[in-house]
Write a structure and sequence with these properties.
two-stranded antiparallel ribbon, about 60% helix, 2 strands, mainly alpha, globular, 5 helices, single chain
């Protein structure tokens, strides 16, 4: 898990969005977050591998998952996610 993971999860949850990587990157930066496009793509892959985001309809759109929301709510810790590997 990276510090940017929380940023991505919070943004998707706060705005209740389904976004592909490029628009997510653009909107994060538009809202004052300094994050690169390649970082967004890399982190989305990691977040999906941990079940924290879902790919919507196999169309490269991502949304926060129930598990991702539990992580944000403090019901899951980083160690809980690492134990699953």
């Amino acid at each position: 898990m990276s510090l940017k993971d929380g940023l991505i999860l919070e943004f998707l949850a706060e705005h209740n969005l389904e976004l592909p990587p490029k628009p997510l990157y653009r909107n994060l930066n538009r809202h004052g977050h300094q994050i690169g496009y390649s970082t967004v793509r890399q982190r989305l892959n990691e977040l999906e591998a941990h079940g924290l985001v879902n790919e919507v309809e196999s169309g490269s759109y991502y949304e926060i998952s129930d598990k991702g929301q539990q992580y944000l709510d403090g019901k899951l810790s980083r160690s809980d996610l690492e134990d699953e590997e």
